[in-house]
Amino acid sequence: MPHHRAIKITRVEYAKNILETIGNTPLVKMNSLVKDVDALVLAKYETFNPGNSVKDRMAIKMVEDAEADGRLKPGGTIIEGTSGNTGMGLALVAVVKGYKLICVMADKQSKEKMDILRAVGAKVMVCPTNVEPDDPRSYYSVSKRLAEETPNSWYVNQYDNPSNAIAHYESTGPEIWEQTNGKITHFIVGVGTGGTISGVGKYLKEKNPNIKVWGIDTYGSVFKKYHETGIFDENEIYSYITEGIGEDILPKNVDFSVIDGFTKVTDKDAAIYTQRLAKEEGMFLGNSAGAAIKGLLQLKENFTKDDVVVILYHDHGSRYVGKMFNDDWMRERGFLEEEVSTAVDLIKDHEEKPLVTVKTEELVSHAIERMRKFQISQIPVVDTEGFAGSVDESALFKAFMEDKNMDSTPIREVMKNPFPVVDSKTSLDDIAKLIKNGTSAVLVDLGNGKHHIITKYDIISHIK
Predict the structure, then answer these.
(1) Residues 410, 329 contacting (CB under 8 angstroms)
(2) What SS3 class is residue 185?
(3) Residue 45: other Cβ atoms inside 10 A
């Protein structure tokens, strides 16, 4: 008889589908960026979710709640307005559960986000950012209309859907409490729909009412002032670059009663700190993480050495490769911390562009056409000898108001003195003085007969 050895079967561990990997994200200690903060700072690192963002948590919760009460039926179409991350979470849920998904996005969202959503089978519609929320073109309005027009569809509405905050009350909050062994003293997070701060904040304050909950807001958004004064100030609303936080509406998911305070972070600081997280902490994260860590540093006077501060990072850097992680994009917006000290530094963004000029015998209409074509406000005037004068839009406008038939007047009749010429090593201060004294531009002599123009705008865009 052959000897039979008993076979021990060990359990094979696996998730039944990708949705079972949502949640249980790690807490990671922050180091170099918080060296001046008197507290233990821990990051709740939500990019470990399968859709690379915190929004996976509420996507599955909102869908399962809608299935349970019949709002979402088998084979239905899910419709949502999203800045990208909720769309990704919903896309994963839709794939696994067999739904169609239409995502409506604002045009300020990165191309990567749109491409990623299409990659997981979502249909993406793009709407303008700079319109009122109740404008029929806004992404709130388009989402609602699509839901009304599409048979067997469900409009998620993450802003006002209570399942959003409940998801964080049921999962994110308890995880943070358990991971810190109840020692958390402050929770900091960017506020967009309000679901994360409200759900986590409610859970933590039920466990310990002394825990402070801080919201990170952006300039152009209404949250901070509304929280402090109860005033919804429409004058505060203007478009901004930072993605995923701030609002021009008050979503029902923002529970202001669990929020102790807000701090606002500028677009520039949010972008710079997004880069710094990657380069100094090895944390390749999204734009709202940069805003959050800068906000934490602005709040550091509130922390003591015994405090445990948890900051939540929403999403992954891969969605911002064409934006905050692209130096050309950063430079165009004046976000790069570059040393600018001389004339040649001021023009390096557009040095390769040819100098646009107009000749003394050309007509006013030619100058106006060139200004329009190149989107410039001032042009040097040249003759066979060299620079003979200059024209700017205010002089042309004044002349045009005095004589409506100005179009066919030669430039030499309306031109002003030539722009001063400086060499490429001239300091920023000296150029600023020239422009302050009523000159609308200066020309930089680059040698080899080449010149370039520096305008007031070039100086303003380099002011820190």
Answers:
(1) no
(2) coil
(3) 18
H-helix segments, 267-392: 267-281, 287-298, 327-332, 343-346, 364-374
User: Do 388 and 338 touch, CB atoms closer than 8 A?
Assistant: no
Structural contact between residues 410 and 363, judged by C-beta atoms closer than 8 angstroms: yes
Residue 341's SS3 state is coil
- Residue 338, pLDDT score: 62
| pTM recorded for the entire structure | 0.75
CB atoms within 10 A of CB 164: 29
Convert the pLDDT of each residue in 122-177 to its tens digit: 999 988 878 887 888 888 888 889 999 999 999 999 989 999 999 999 999 999 99
Largest separation between any pair of C-alpha atoms in the chain: 117
Rg (CA), the chain: 28
How many whole angstroms separate alpha carbon 354 and alpha carbon 357? 9
Q: Please name the helix (run of DSSP H) or strand (run of DSSP E) that holds residue 145, with its range, or none.
A: helix 139-149
The answer to whether 285 and 313 have CB atoms below 8 angstroms apart is yes
Distance of CA 95 to the CA centre of its chain: 28
Closest CA relative to residue 22, chosen from 165, 121, 170: 170
User: So which residues are the catalytic ones?
Assistant: 55
The pairing of strands 386-392 and 378-383 is: antiparallel
Measured distance CA(46)–CA(172) in Å, rounded:
10
